[in-house]
Specification:
The structure is a single chain. This protein is an alpha+beta fold and 419 residues long. α3 runs antiparallel to α4. A 6-stranded antiparallel barrel has the order 3-13-16-15-14-17. 29% of the residues lie in helices and 33% in strands. It is built from 5 helices and 25 strands. It folds into 4 domains: 94 residues, conserved putative lor/sdh protein from methanococcus maripaludis s2 fold, CATH 2.40.420.20; 90 residues, Efflux pump adaptor protein, beta barrel domain (Elongation Factor Tu (Ef-tu), domain 3), CATH 2.40.30; 73 residues, RNA polymerase II/Efflux pump adaptor protein, barrel-sandwich hybrid domain (OB fold (Dihydrolipoamide Acetyltransferase, E2P)), CATH 2.40.50; 87 residues, Helix hairpin bin (Helix Hairpins, Orthogonal Bundle), CATH 1.10.287. It starts with a helix and ends with a helix. A hairpin with a 2-residue loop joins β20 and β21. The radius of gyration is 48 Å and the shape is rod-shaped.
């Protein structure tokens, strides 16, 4: 029992003994930890906070319509430049190309020689026809001489018969010989005409070895080379050409667009049009509707519209892509002009607090701009108020993007090179 009592005495706390310091207190340690965390947070902000601005894609807003007296756009569509007068020129006969006198981009006039074929066969046929004509003419001259003699003999015997100096049978024989020679002369003259026509056909054969331009235009393709065989009909295989080259009449260029069935009612003949080539987006070309083709494409649900180009320019070439805006009729000068509108991508539109807004790039910040929307134009949307055109707007703005937020614009050049 004494041992157990001694142990209990040792475990008893002596409250009168002074406290001994064994190291820093818990409060000091916690303070140090908090200070370290604050320093790390500040350092992290300096390292990463400056680049925390989100990276965004942008697009430009396009101005449409306007108050300059021209009508505003009622419909936009895309199409291509086409030529109404285009021809792949070929020879009328099958033959070997001897010389080609055209190059791509060269302008040719109507009747200009584009190529020649080997004329050996045609020349030989012409020589034969010329010889046949000469023989027929010679035979005609022979018959004419014989007929002249026969007519003189018949006339002489006629006088002698009246004087009963010769028998009537001799006279009848002379008349028969004269009539026979007259028939031979008629046949010989017909043979001359046939031979002359044959020579004319042979001349055409020689002329067919020369390929000429059917109309004035520009050569867009050179299809044959000297030594190749060309034929107006495909002979099968890969060794026979069917054309010498392709000519386009640049004065016949026009625009063809496919308009959706739901919007074709907005298009009328003689309607003014503003065209913009994909190659020259800042160049606005005046145009006019020629006709609406009275048939629809059931597969695409579109109707083809032909548009004439009022401005002729060497920059306009076939198969170029073009975007057209069908305009309302121009208003009188004293009429109140409508305000210009703009066209923004659908991806740039979003809503904040129930309002349609876009985020316009201003240096490295964005400005939230309320807009009033108009018609849908494919992947774009008409903006009747809030934008005037030329602004750079954020595409697919994130929900966290607010007015005045800093952003980093994605490098469009780098994206295009990666694709």
């Amino acid at each position: 029992m004494s041992a157990s009592a001694d142990l209990l005495k040792e475990l008893r706390i002596d409250r009168n003994r002074p406290a001994q310091s064994s190291g820093p207190g818990r409060g000091t340690i916690v303070g140090i930890v908090v200070l370290v965390l604050i320093v790390l947070a500040v350092a992290g902000w300096f390292v990463f906070g400056r680049n925390a601005a989100p990276q965004v894609k942008t697009a430009s807003v396009t101005a449409i319509g306007g108050g300059n007296g021209a009508g505003s756009s009622v419909l936009d569509a895309t199409g291509y430049i086409v030529a109404r007068r285009i021809a792949t020129v070929s020879a009328k006969i099958t033959g070997k190309v001897r010389e080609v006198m055209i190059e791509e981009g060269q302008r040719v006039e109507a009747g200009q020689v584009m190529a020649t074929l080997d004329p050996i066969d045609a020349d030989a046929q012409r020589s034969l026809s010329a010889a046949q004509l000469a023989a027929a003419q010679s035979d005609t001259a022979r018959v004419q001489a014989q007929l002249k003699e026969a007519e003189a003999n018949a006339n002489r015997l006629a006088a002698l018969v009246k004087q009963q100096l010769v028998s009537k049978s001799q006279y009848d024989q002379a008349v028969a010989s004269r009539d026979s020679l007259r028939a031979q002369l008629d046949t010989a003259q017909r043979n001359v005409k046939v031979s002359r026509d044959s020579l004319h056909i042979s001349d055409l054969g020689v002329d067919n070895t020369i390929v000429r331009a059917p109309f004035s235009g520009v050569v867009t393709a050179k299809a044959a080379q000297p030594g190749e065989i060309v034929s107006p009909l495909s002979a099968g295989g890969g060794f026979t050409r069917t054309g010498i080259g392709t000519i386009v009449d640049m004065d016949s260029l026009e625009i063809e667009v496919d308009v959706g069935e739901a919007f074709i009612g907005r298009v009328q003949p003689k309607m003014p049009v503003e065209a913009v080539l994909n190659a020259y987006p800042d160049w606005k070309i005046p145009a006019e509707v020629i006709a609406i083709i009275p048939t629809a494409d059931r597969g695409k649900a579109t109707v083809k519209v032909r548009i004439s180009i009022k401005s002729r320019d060497p920059r306009i070439v076939p198969e170029m892509g073009v975007r057209v805006s069908f305009l309302e009729a121009a208003k009188p000068a004293n009429a109140v002009q409508s305000k210009p509108s703009a066209m923004a991508p659908n991806a740039a539109l979003t809503q904040r607090d129930g309002k349609d807004v876009v985020f316009v790039i201003a240096q490295d910040k964005v400005a939230q701009t309320a807009v009033t929307l108009g018609r849908k134009l494919g992947d774009d949307r008409e903006v009747t108020a809030g934008l005037s055109g030329g602004e750079s707007v954020v595409l697919d703005p994130p929900e966290s993007l607010k007015d005045g937020s800093r952003v980093r614009v994605e490098n469009a050049d780098a994206d295009s090179s990666d694709k």
